[in-house]
Design brief:
307 residues; eight-stranded parallel beta barrel; 13 helices; binds glyceraldehyde-3-phosphate; binds 1,3-dihydroxyacetonephosphate; binds zinc ion
Length: 307
Amino acid sequence: MPLASLIKMYERANKERYAIPQFNVNNLEFIQAALEVAEELKAPVILAASTSAIKYAGIEYLMAMVKTGTARMIAPVAIHLDHGAKLEDAKMCIDAGFNSVMIDASKEPLEGNIRVTKEVVAIARATGVCVEAELGRLGGIEDEVNVDASEAFLTDPAEAERFVKESGCHALAVAVGTSHGAFKFKHEPKLAMDRITDIKKRTGIALVLHGASGVGKELLDKAAKYGAQLPGAMGVPDEAYQDAVARGINKINIDTDLRLAFMGSLRETLATKPSEFDPRKLLGPAKEAVKEQMRNKIKLFGCAGKA
Ligand code: G3H
Ligand code: 13P
Ligand code: ZN
């Protein structure tokens, strides 16, 4: 089928309380991995490209791969701009055929964030494109620093209520203590789960968890065995996904775990097969390692069988 409306996908996810994974993609292997796993598990998925992914691969190449890959699929797939910083980024992606865009003006004061999000919503409306916005700043909650200071970055539920009403966004990324990359927590993982419940109660819309990779021990051990150096890497524990979904998260963003799986497999092949130089023999197993991560997430997020 052609691309599926993310607005509709969210309606069902919200009603049935599950989360759709966002898998960040930069190349053929990651796109194929996500589409093959979605079909295999009959699950909805969101492919996402950041502006740096677009710069790396080219927007036409990305769209051509997504269109070709989804043409004969049953499972619903959306293509989304991740962390668009400007109105122009959103326009470029909508013109290229993306059916969802994120406008991330979370660094702006509230008024400015509302204004630019509203502008994107106005452009997106005509084409049924879904708009995600962000309120609050992603970052770990560090007890020993200053609780008040670190909590000041988290999404304020009353502000979220006003933001959603005034901006008209379809989905809202909330800051509850997660952060991007492989180093999310210095000690043990800590998330402000109660905020999700409160924000959901006040807004009712699809809520999004960014910076949600698990950075699991297995991934880290395998990468370390073949030479990776990532001391202190730590991510979101599996139990937190289920709690977050039960409280109203409908989209969970995963990039780092896919990168770690890809890198770990590449390292293993290079180390154990020193005479191999066929890229397909290097990238094929790496794609399989990415697929395994994707399968795990789909099952944990409760969206297997929801196609
Ligand atoms: O939120 C950031 C995503 O992980 C994308 O990262 O800008 O390196 O493509 P990137
Ligand atoms: P991770 O770095 O935890 O995978 O988060 C990705 C993300 O939020 C992309 O928007
Ligand atoms: Zn993000």
